[in-house]
Amino acid sequence: MSETKRTPGTGRRRPARERVLAAAALRFYSDGITATGIDTITAEAGVAKMSLYNNFSSKAELVHAYLDARHEEWMAQYRSRLEQAESPRDGVLAVFDAYIDSATGDGFRGCGLLNAAAEMPAGDEGRARVRRHKEAVERLMAEHIAALVPERPDIARTTAEHLSFLLEGAMTRAGLEGDSNRLRHARAMAAGLLDRL
Q: Looking at the chain, which terminus has fewer C-beta neighbours within 10 angstroms, N or C?
């Protein structure tokens, strides 16, 4: 198999680790983790099986790297949206916008992290990574809401939890329906709730 895929625009070879992780991300999201074998990933990445195992000791380690990469990808989308925020209210809505940004393109099937967690047994480290991501998202909203209503920390916490449930429910429905309409509706509902604080 070819080990010489080039990074577009640079002429340099993309490292095998990056290619394996990109191939795994594509297949894990579109086909599921359990249904995606190592042979499929190596073929898609254009690497030998040894290259995969030189970079990831097991499929489980590859899955964890995939989950971490999805978290970082979402955080980058959120930070990009946050740069446009002019108020704490906008900061909360930047969270919704980052989810909307991820709900594009053919083959959208919902939250990749939740899809992955659904395939893992209770107690699996991968599920813990997904839980930490979801907690981080709720914490971001709580921080923005706390800045919006600094004298009411109890309201900030409960509102962040409420919006987290709204966001996750909308993402689930958006994944089932294959578009971002539910997320856009949830964003409008969140904006209305924030305006009433």
A: N
